[in-house]
Amino acid sequence: MNSKQLQYFLVTVQKGSIAAAARELDIAQPAISQQLANLEREMGSALFERSFKGVSLTAAGEVFEKHAKKLIEDINAAKMELHQLAANQHGVVRVGMLPSIGNVLSMSLIAMVNEFHPQLKLEISTGPSYAVKEWLKTNQVDIALTYEQEVEPRFMSAYPLIEEFMYLVVGVNEASAYYQLLQNRDTICFWELSQFELLTPGPKDALGRLIEKYEHDTGVALKHDKAYSGQLMTGLRQVIQGEGLMILPSSAMYHLEESKVIKSLKITQPDMKRQVLAATNSNFAMTDAIVKMLSIIQEASSTEQACGHWRGNLLNKVPKSDARPMGFASPSTVSAL
Question: Kind of pairing, strands 143-147 and 273-281?
Protein backbone atom coordinates (compact mmCIF):
# COMPACT_ATOMS: atom_id res chain seq x y z
CA MET A 1 0.00 0.00 0.00
CA ASN A 2 1.28 3.46 -0.85
CA SER A 3 0.06 7.06 -0.77
CA LYS A 4 -0.85 6.95 -4.47
CA GLN A 5 -3.27 4.07 -3.85
CA LEU A 6 -4.80 5.90 -0.89
CA GLN A 7 -5.30 9.01 -3.02
CA TYR A 8 -6.90 7.03 -5.87
CA PHE A 9 -9.19 5.25 -3.38
CA LEU A 10 -10.42 8.45 -1.70
CA VAL A 11 -10.97 10.35 -4.95
CA THR A 12 -12.93 7.39 -6.36
CA VAL A 13 -15.10 7.35 -3.23
CA GLN A 14 -15.69 11.09 -3.55
CA LYS A 15 -16.54 10.99 -7.29
CA GLY A 16 -18.58 7.79 -7.16
CA SER A 17 -16.93 6.22 -10.22
CA ILE A 18 -13.53 5.23 -11.51
CA ALA A 19 -14.11 7.16 -14.74
CA ALA A 20 -14.86 10.38 -12.83
CA ALA A 21 -11.80 9.83 -10.60
CA ALA A 22 -9.63 9.37 -13.71
CA ARG A 23 -10.86 12.70 -15.09
CA GLU A 24 -10.27 14.45 -11.73
CA LEU A 25 -6.74 13.09 -11.42
CA ASP A 26 -5.98 13.38 -15.14
CA ILE A 27 -4.87 9.74 -15.20
CA ALA A 28 -5.92 6.91 -17.50
CA GLN A 29 -8.83 4.90 -16.12
CA PRO A 30 -7.06 1.50 -16.42
CA ALA A 31 -4.20 2.78 -14.27
CA ILE A 32 -6.58 3.67 -11.45
CA SER A 33 -8.46 0.38 -11.81
CA GLN A 34 -5.18 -1.55 -11.53
CA GLN A 35 -4.05 0.34 -8.43
CA LEU A 36 -7.42 -0.16 -6.72
CA ALA A 37 -7.35 -3.87 -7.54
CA ASN A 38 -3.85 -4.14 -6.06
CA LEU A 39 -5.07 -2.34 -2.93
CA GLU A 40 -8.01 -4.73 -2.52
CA ARG A 41 -5.70 -7.75 -2.89
CA GLU A 42 -3.35 -6.36 -0.24
CA MET A 43 -6.23 -5.61 2.16
CA GLY A 44 -7.77 -9.05 1.50
CA SER A 45 -11.25 -7.58 1.00
CA ALA A 46 -13.37 -6.06 -1.73
CA LEU A 47 -13.56 -2.32 -1.00
CA PHE A 48 -16.02 -1.37 -3.77
CA GLU A 49 -19.21 -2.73 -5.20
CA ARG A 50 -19.10 -2.04 -8.94
CA SER A 51 -22.09 -1.47 -11.25
CA PHE A 52 -22.81 0.28 -14.52
CA LYS A 53 -23.77 3.37 -12.47
CA GLY A 54 -20.39 3.55 -10.75
CA VAL A 55 -18.98 2.29 -7.47
CA SER A 56 -20.08 2.26 -3.82
CA LEU A 57 -18.28 1.18 -0.69
CA THR A 58 -18.64 -2.25 0.82
CA ALA A 59 -18.71 -2.65 4.61
CA ALA A 60 -14.96 -3.30 4.44
CA GLY A 61 -14.57 -0.24 2.25
CA GLU A 62 -16.31 1.97 4.81
CA VAL A 63 -13.94 0.77 7.53
CA PHE A 64 -10.93 1.29 5.27
CA GLU A 65 -12.08 4.79 4.29
CA LYS A 66 -11.71 6.01 7.91
CA HIS A 67 -8.15 4.70 8.09
CA ALA A 68 -7.28 6.00 4.62
CA LYS A 69 -8.32 9.54 5.56
CA LYS A 70 -6.26 9.37 8.75
CA LEU A 71 -3.24 8.04 6.87
CA ILE A 72 -3.44 10.81 4.28
CA GLU A 73 -3.76 13.42 7.04
CA ASP A 74 -0.66 12.00 8.75
CA ILE A 75 1.28 11.96 5.49
CA ASN A 76 0.33 15.58 4.74
CA ALA A 77 1.25 16.64 8.27
CA ALA A 78 4.62 14.92 7.94
CA LYS A 79 5.23 16.67 4.62
CA MET A 80 4.43 20.05 6.16
CA GLU A 81 6.81 19.46 9.07
CA LEU A 82 9.57 18.31 6.72
CA HIS A 83 9.03 21.32 4.48
CA GLN A 84 9.29 23.59 7.53
CA LEU A 85 12.43 21.79 8.64
CA ALA A 86 13.95 22.21 5.19
CA ALA A 87 13.01 25.90 5.19
CA ASN A 88 14.70 26.38 8.56
CA GLN A 89 17.81 24.51 7.45
CA HIS A 90 18.04 26.60 4.28
CA GLY A 91 17.92 29.87 6.17
CA VAL A 92 20.30 32.78 6.47
CA VAL A 93 22.36 32.74 9.68
CA ARG A 94 23.90 36.04 10.83
CA VAL A 95 27.06 35.66 12.90
CA GLY A 96 28.72 38.54 14.75
CA MET A 97 32.28 38.19 16.00
CA LEU A 98 35.28 40.14 17.20
CA PRO A 99 38.14 40.79 14.74
CA SER A 100 40.48 38.45 16.63
CA ILE A 101 37.96 35.59 16.41
CA GLY A 102 37.14 36.45 12.81
CA ASN A 103 40.83 36.28 11.93
CA VAL A 104 40.99 32.60 12.83
CA LEU A 105 37.43 31.42 12.07
CA SER A 106 35.96 33.42 9.19
CA MET A 107 37.73 31.66 6.31
CA SER A 108 37.17 28.19 7.80
CA LEU A 109 33.47 28.87 8.35
CA ILE A 110 32.99 30.22 4.84
CA ALA A 111 34.82 27.25 3.32
CA MET A 112 32.84 24.68 5.34
CA VAL A 113 29.49 26.26 4.56
CA ASN A 114 30.26 26.58 0.84
CA GLU A 115 31.56 23.02 0.48
CA PHE A 116 29.40 20.98 2.82
CA HIS A 117 26.31 23.08 3.63
CA PRO A 118 25.35 25.01 0.49
CA GLN A 119 21.74 25.16 1.71
CA LEU A 120 22.86 27.64 4.39
CA LYS A 121 23.78 31.27 3.84
CA LEU A 122 26.34 32.72 6.25
CA GLU A 123 26.50 36.46 6.92
CA ILE A 124 29.45 37.63 9.05
CA SER A 125 29.74 40.98 10.84
CA THR A 126 32.80 42.00 12.88
CA GLY A 127 33.13 44.64 15.56
CA PRO A 128 34.30 45.30 19.12
CA SER A 129 32.95 43.09 21.90
CA TYR A 130 30.41 45.65 23.16
CA ALA A 131 29.02 46.13 19.64
CA VAL A 132 28.67 42.38 19.04
CA LYS A 133 26.75 42.05 22.32
CA GLU A 134 24.41 44.86 21.31
CA TRP A 135 23.83 43.24 17.89
CA LEU A 136 22.76 40.01 19.59
CA LYS A 137 20.55 41.82 22.08
CA THR A 138 18.73 43.73 19.32
CA ASN A 139 18.43 40.66 17.05
CA GLN A 140 20.78 42.03 14.41
CA VAL A 141 22.76 38.77 14.56
CA ASP A 142 21.65 35.21 15.37
CA ILE A 143 24.94 34.06 16.90
CA ALA A 144 27.60 36.11 18.70
CA LEU A 145 31.15 34.79 19.05
CA THR A 146 32.52 36.62 22.05
CA TYR A 147 34.23 36.34 25.43
CA GLU A 148 33.03 35.39 28.88
CA GLN A 149 33.35 39.01 30.03
CA GLU A 150 30.48 39.96 27.71
CA VAL A 151 28.00 37.26 28.77
CA GLU A 152 24.68 38.55 30.15
CA PRO A 153 22.58 35.57 31.35
CA ARG A 154 19.39 37.66 31.33
CA PHE A 155 19.21 37.41 27.53
CA MET A 156 22.10 35.18 26.42
CA SER A 157 22.37 31.40 26.08
CA ALA A 158 26.12 30.72 25.98
CA TYR A 159 27.97 27.71 24.58
CA PRO A 160 31.71 27.48 25.41
CA LEU A 161 34.05 26.80 22.49
CA ILE A 162 37.64 27.20 23.68
CA GLU A 163 39.69 28.47 26.61
CA GLU A 164 42.38 30.38 24.76
CA PHE A 165 45.86 31.26 26.02
CA MET A 166 47.06 34.84 25.99
CA TYR A 167 50.43 35.99 24.65
CA LEU A 168 52.69 39.00 24.73
CA VAL A 169 53.25 40.01 21.10
CA VAL A 170 56.46 41.71 19.94
CA GLY A 171 57.47 42.79 16.45
CA VAL A 172 60.38 40.95 14.79
CA ASN A 173 62.44 44.09 14.28
CA GLU A 174 66.21 43.99 14.79
CA ALA A 175 66.20 47.71 15.57
CA SER A 176 63.65 47.26 18.37
CA ALA A 177 64.92 47.08 21.94
CA TYR A 178 61.83 45.00 22.79
CA TYR A 179 62.75 42.36 20.24
CA GLN A 180 66.40 42.28 21.26
CA LEU A 181 65.32 41.60 24.84
CA LEU A 182 62.65 38.98 24.09
CA GLN A 183 63.70 37.22 20.87
CA ASN A 184 65.04 34.09 22.60
CA ARG A 185 62.13 33.59 24.97
CA ASP A 186 58.90 31.58 24.57
CA THR A 187 57.19 32.47 27.86
CA ILE A 188 56.96 35.48 30.13
CA CYS A 189 55.61 35.89 33.68
CA PHE A 190 52.69 38.27 34.14
CA TRP A 191 54.64 40.46 36.56
CA GLU A 192 57.33 41.00 33.90
CA LEU A 193 54.79 42.73 31.67
CA SER A 194 55.04 45.80 33.91
CA GLN A 195 58.44 46.53 32.32
CA PHE A 196 56.98 47.23 28.88
CA GLU A 197 54.83 49.85 27.22
CA LEU A 198 51.63 48.13 26.14
CA LEU A 199 48.98 48.89 23.55
CA THR A 200 45.76 47.97 25.34
CA PRO A 201 42.06 48.71 24.83
CA GLY A 202 40.02 50.49 27.48
CA PRO A 203 37.61 48.89 29.98
CA LYS A 204 34.72 49.14 27.54
CA ASP A 205 36.31 46.28 25.61
CA ALA A 206 36.34 42.68 26.89
CA LEU A 207 40.14 42.42 26.51
CA GLY A 208 40.62 45.65 28.46
CA ARG A 209 38.49 44.26 31.30
CA LEU A 210 40.41 40.97 31.25
CA ILE A 211 43.72 42.80 31.62
CA GLU A 212 42.30 44.90 34.47
CA LYS A 213 41.15 41.69 36.20
CA TYR A 214 44.62 40.18 36.08
CA GLU A 215 46.17 43.42 37.32
CA HIS A 216 43.75 43.45 40.25
CA ASP A 217 44.24 39.76 41.11
CA THR A 218 48.05 39.86 40.90
CA GLY A 219 48.63 43.38 42.22
CA VAL A 220 50.81 44.10 39.17
CA ALA A 221 50.19 47.47 37.49
CA LEU A 222 50.88 47.55 33.76
CA LYS A 223 51.81 50.51 31.57
CA HIS A 224 48.90 51.61 29.35
CA ASP A 225 50.27 55.00 28.29
CA LYS A 226 50.90 54.24 24.61
CA ALA A 227 48.33 55.74 22.24
CA TYR A 228 46.17 52.96 20.76
CA SER A 229 43.30 53.29 18.31
CA GLY A 230 41.48 50.21 19.62
CA GLN A 231 41.67 48.65 16.13
CA LEU A 232 43.39 45.26 16.09
CA MET A 233 45.09 45.65 12.71
CA THR A 234 46.35 49.14 13.54
CA GLY A 235 47.73 47.93 16.85
CA LEU A 236 49.55 45.03 15.18
CA ARG A 237 51.11 47.47 12.71
CA GLN A 238 52.39 49.50 15.65
CA VAL A 239 53.82 46.33 17.20
CA ILE A 240 55.58 45.36 13.96
CA GLN A 241 57.09 48.84 13.80
CA GLY A 242 58.39 48.48 17.36
CA GLU A 243 56.10 51.13 18.88
CA GLY A 244 54.89 48.91 21.72
CA LEU A 245 53.70 45.43 22.68
CA MET A 246 50.23 43.88 22.80
CA ILE A 247 48.51 41.17 24.84
CA LEU A 248 46.57 38.95 22.43
CA PRO A 249 45.38 35.38 21.84
CA SER A 250 46.99 33.38 19.03
CA SER A 251 43.75 33.70 17.02
CA ALA A 252 44.49 37.40 16.51
CA MET A 253 48.02 37.11 15.21
CA TYR A 254 48.96 33.53 14.18
CA HIS A 255 49.13 34.55 10.49
CA LEU A 256 51.72 37.23 11.27
CA GLU A 257 53.63 34.78 13.42
CA GLU A 258 53.73 32.31 10.51
CA SER A 259 55.04 35.14 8.31
CA LYS A 260 57.74 35.79 10.97
CA VAL A 261 56.91 39.48 11.37
CA ILE A 262 55.89 39.07 15.01
CA LYS A 263 56.86 36.80 17.87
CA SER A 264 54.64 35.70 20.76
CA LEU A 265 55.47 34.72 24.34
CA LYS A 266 52.95 32.74 26.38
CA ILE A 267 51.97 34.61 29.54
CA THR A 268 52.41 32.50 32.69
CA GLN A 269 52.48 32.72 36.50
CA PRO A 270 49.59 32.96 36.39
CA ASP A 271 48.60 31.55 33.04
CA MET A 272 46.58 34.23 31.32
CA LYS A 273 43.56 32.84 29.49
CA ARG A 274 39.89 33.42 28.76
CA GLN A 275 36.87 31.55 27.41
CA VAL A 276 35.47 32.13 23.94
CA LEU A 277 31.79 31.39 23.57
CA ALA A 278 29.07 31.16 20.98
CA ALA A 279 25.98 32.93 22.29
CA THR A 280 22.37 33.14 21.10
CA ASN A 281 19.55 35.38 22.26
CA SER A 282 17.39 33.34 24.63
CA ASN A 283 14.39 35.56 23.83
CA PHE A 284 14.22 34.13 20.29
CA ALA A 285 13.70 30.53 19.20
CA MET A 286 16.65 28.88 17.48
CA THR A 287 15.95 27.59 13.98
CA ASP A 288 17.50 24.36 12.74
CA ALA A 289 19.77 26.49 10.56
CA ILE A 290 21.14 28.26 13.64
CA VAL A 291 21.69 24.94 15.44
CA LYS A 292 23.50 23.62 12.37
CA MET A 293 25.67 26.75 12.20
CA LEU A 294 26.63 26.33 15.86
CA SER A 295 27.79 22.81 15.04
CA ILE A 296 29.82 24.12 12.08
CA ILE A 297 31.40 26.77 14.34
CA GLN A 298 32.40 24.03 16.78
CA GLU A 299 33.94 22.00 13.95
CA ALA A 300 35.85 25.02 12.63
CA SER A 301 37.10 25.82 16.14
CA SER A 302 38.38 22.26 16.55
CA THR A 303 40.11 22.41 13.18
CA GLU A 304 41.88 25.68 13.94
CA GLN A 305 42.90 24.48 17.40
CA ALA A 306 44.28 21.22 16.00
CA CYS A 307 46.53 23.01 13.50
CA GLY A 308 47.85 25.42 16.15
CA HIS A 309 46.21 28.59 14.87
CA TRP A 310 44.00 28.82 17.96
CA ARG A 311 46.02 27.75 20.98
CA GLY A 312 44.05 26.71 24.05
CA ASN A 313 41.80 24.00 25.47
CA LEU A 314 38.68 23.02 23.51
CA LEU A 315 35.41 23.14 25.43
CA ASN A 316 32.97 22.25 22.63
CA LYS A 317 29.55 22.45 24.26
CA VAL A 318 27.33 23.68 21.45
CA PRO A 319 23.72 22.46 21.42
CA LYS A 320 22.07 19.68 19.51
CA SER A 321 18.57 20.34 18.21
CA ASP A 322 16.98 19.16 21.47
CA ALA A 323 19.64 20.39 23.89
CA ARG A 324 19.39 23.15 26.46
CA PRO A 325 22.07 25.83 26.82
CA MET A 326 24.99 24.96 29.05
CA GLY A 327 26.57 27.37 31.51
CA PHE A 328 29.73 29.06 30.26
CA ALA A 329 31.55 28.73 33.59
CA SER A 330 30.87 28.67 37.27
CA PRO A 331 31.31 31.93 39.20
CA SER A 332 34.33 30.46 40.98
CA THR A 333 35.97 29.58 37.68
CA VAL A 334 35.44 33.03 36.23
CA SER A 335 36.70 34.80 39.31
CA ALA A 336 39.91 32.80 39.15
CA LEU A 337 40.72 34.02 35.65
Answer: antiparallel
